[in-house]
Amino acid sequence: MNVWPEVVLRDLCWKVQYGYTASASKAEVGPKFLRITDIVPDLIDWESVPYCEVTEKERQKYLLQEGDIVVARTGATTGWAKRIKNAPEAVFASYLVRLQLRKDVDAGFVGAVVESAMYKEFIQKHMGGAAQPNANAQVLTSFPLRLPPLPTQRKIAAILSAYDDLIENNTRRVRVLEEMARALYREWFVEFRFPGYEGAEFVEDEQGRRPKGWEWGTFRDAAVVFSTSLNPGNFPEEEFEHFSLPAFDAGQLPALENGSEIKSNKNRIPKDCVLLPKLNPKIPRVWLPPASKGGRQIASTEFLPLLPSEAIPSTGSTVCVRLRNFWSVWL
């Protein structure tokens, strides 16, 4: 039986390059300007990616090509990556590192490896920085992987590409539904055009106009933080359902890990809670944990476990919907 040789990611690259330093602009002053925040979601939303000014020489130097791989090199999402496909004219920002692959490897295969949770976990374990995590190009390209023959790479990439297409289509459908939910939320709870509003009585106070019987409040009136932690390392043989940022970005499924593999304290997850992320608030990673499959559920401290307030007659799922729309309306 032939064993695929183990290689290091940098051996598959003909060029590794840091990105371009510029200010992002909403105005169409030049090409699209891809940043870390743009590559963290499941799909790159090119419509929301800003622009930047760039000289013709810099445009040629930093222009993204089909099959390029860009990797975040700083911040909480260090190690997050995307393979570029079907992109408009775009350059990449300085906190990204671009990997351009040799012609004798398949970009789809290598891209799938670099976008995987396994790659993220490797980088998170090997990166430096205390207050601000970071990894240089040497670390980002030090990931070891098994490399099959090129025909096998292409077969694997084709299978994964078919699944990617399905996921992208489903993701687009979800975005449409979420946009509809945001519009409904704004219509009912911001504009107060809820069913029957024509006959409703409104009152006015120093905070503004509201339907009679409604009260002003803050978000903390609707949810409370469940702040109970545990150290999984004290239970080395127990299998936990671990909710983390990498797990969310890899498909919103918790990682199954033994306590011996988890090196720090985690938040316990109570029933019917919602996980609200504390890092990168512009990225709406609101997570409603599914029912446990048997193991105890824990969350990385990047998440706040929230429970509905006793004053709010609401289920966790409703709070999650409210949170998602609150996120989009108010941030």
Question: What topology does this entry show?
Answer:
Elements: E1 6-8, E2 13-18, E3 32-34, H1 36-39, H2 56-62, E4 69-72, E5 81-83, E6 90-92, E7 96-101, H3 107-114, H4 117-126, H5 137-140, E8 144-146, H6 150-190, E9 202-205, E10 208-211, E11 223-225, E12 229-230, E13 239-243, H7 245-249, E14 255-258, E15 266-268, E16 274-277, E17 296-299, E18 303-308, H8 316-330
Parallel strand pairs: 3-6, 13-17
Antiparallel strand pairs: 1-8, 2-7, 4-5, 4-7, 9-10, 11-18, 12-15, 13-14, 15-17, 16-18
Helix pairs in contact: 3-6, 6-8
What does this entry look like structurally?
This protein has 331 residues and is of the alpha+beta class. The chain folds into two domains: 6-147, Adenine-n6-DNA-methyltransferase TaqI, Chain A, domain 2; 217-330, DNA methylase specificity domains (Adenine-n6-DNA-methyltransferase TaqI, Chain A, domain 2, Alpha-Beta Complex). It is 28% helix and 21% strand. The protein contains eight helices and 18 strands. It has helices at residues 36-39, 56-62, 107-114, 117-126, 137-140, 150-190, 245-249, 316-330; strands spanning 6-8, 13-18, 32-34, 69-72, 81-83, 90-92, 96-101, 144-146, 202-205, 208-211, 223-225, 229-230, 239-243, 255-258, 266-268, 274-277, 296-299, 303-308. The chain has a five-stranded mixed β-sheet with strand order 12-15-17-13-14. Strand 4 and strand 5 form a beta hairpin. Helix 3 (107-114) packs across helix 6 (150-190) and helix 6 packs across helix 8 (316-330). The longest helix is centred in the middle third of the chain and has 41 residues, at 150-190. The termini are far apart.
